[in-house]
Amino acid sequence: MTNRPHVAVIVFPGSNDDRDAAWALGSVGAEPALVWHEETELPPAIGAVVLPGGFAYGDYLRTGAIASVAPIMDAVRAFAASGGPVLGICNGFQILCEARLLPGVLRANRQLEFVCRDAALEVESVDSVFMRRCSVGQRLVIPVKHGEGAWYADEGTFVQLAARGQIVLRYAEDVNGALGNVAGVVNEAGNVMGLMPHPEHAVDPLLGSADGGFLLAALVDAAAAHHALAHA
Amino acid sequence: MKATVLIRPKAGILDPQGDAVRHSLQKLGFDVHATRVGRVVDLDVEADDTGGARAEIQRMCEELLANPLIESFEIRIEES
Q1: CA-CA distances (angstroms) from residue A56 to A15, A51, A90?
Q2: Which of A42, A114, A220, B63 is the most buried (most CB within 10 A)?
Q3: Other C-beta atoms lying within 10 Å of the C-beta of residue A116
């Protein structure tokens, strides 16, 4: 055990960014713990949960659909309900939407092509714990790599989310046909976030950008705060 | 009891896959105005009657098989 905040990274069959996420979290001060999807409880002392990128269950049925009902998800749901910070990256975002922990759904890119490149993002709202190290209007460069990343919600939901500051990141240009160029959203309570770009692939200037570190470091801050609160 | 669930992109929802298929059909010379691509799930379920089977499959659709934000579904029970 260390004094570093403990962050669980859930591993589904078909996850492929789990170890990258764990490494990146370690680089910004977390003690990561990989947790297999068949577990029914999170390890003790966990302060935050990350659902990583990949192709959980081969994207069968719909991306994220099967994973959203995996055994560990009841524990993730309970953790989120207790105010614990949960971050879904790419496939993790798809899973959180399918689990209805986040609004909307991720659909096939409008151009029907896999998109894999650095994406310029604009920070739209910094009210949630995940965005505490960013400022409104800040531009971040974080890579995307997905075939099904076009976020969609009905018009009424979209307007409501924007008004409440739940749209946290937008692409600076159209990347995949997402409604409103939405790249990341948070739940109403502000403790569950999903985004298609991969902050874990942007934590070192050697990799082209360190901007993902803003998000992951904020998650580690939130993990420390949640753990302190839960064990006060 | 055997049943089939037809899952379709909801009316009004952009279906890029359907559009791509339509373009290909047109390239082959077919006179197609619209194409929508969905999914078929064949099921064999334990049920006493068709009403019970339908109710059970309805729940399956709502909980997993379809995403109500973007998909509609139709349940067909095979009468034996």
Answers
A1: 5, 10, 11
A2: A220
A3: 10
∠ at Cα A187 (A24, A90), nearest 5°? 40
What type of residue sits at position A95?
A: I
CA B46 to chain A, closest CA, distance in angstroms equals: 22
Task: Say which of A69, A111, A177 has its CB closest to residue B64.
Answer: A69
Q: In this complex, is the C-beta atom of A104 within 8 Å of any C-beta atom belonging to chain B?
A: yes
Asked if A65 and B67 come within 8 Å (Cβ–Cβ), the reply is yes
Contact between residue A52 and residue A17 where contact means Cβ atoms under 8 Å apart: yes
Helix and strand numbers, DSSP H then E, in chain B: 2, 3
The interface predicted TM-score of the complex, written ipTM, equals 0.87
Q: What single string gives the DSSP state of each residue in A46-72?
A: EEEEEE--B-GGGG-SSTTTTGGGSTH
Span A7-49, pLDDT tens digits = 999 999 999 999 999 999 999 999 999 999 999 999 999 999 9
Cα–Cα distance, A207 to A143 (Å, whole number): 10
Length of chain A counted residue by residue? 232
Backbone Cα Rg of chain B:
16
Q: Round to whole Å and give the CA distance between A51 and A72.
A: 11
Report the sign of the C-alpha dihedral through residues A158, A162, A165, A170, in that order.
positive
Average pLDDT score over residue span A142-171: 97
| Number of Cβ pairs < 8 A linking chain A and chain B | 32
Q: Residue A160: CB partners within 8 Å, gap ≥ 6?
A: none
**Which whole number is the average pLDDT over A67-91?**
98
Q: What angle do CA B60, B18, B8 make, to 5 degrees?
A: 20
CB A134 within 8 A of CB A127: no
Q: Closest Cα partner for A175 from A147, A200, A199?
A: A147
Does A110 contact chain B (CB < 8 Å)?
Answer: yes
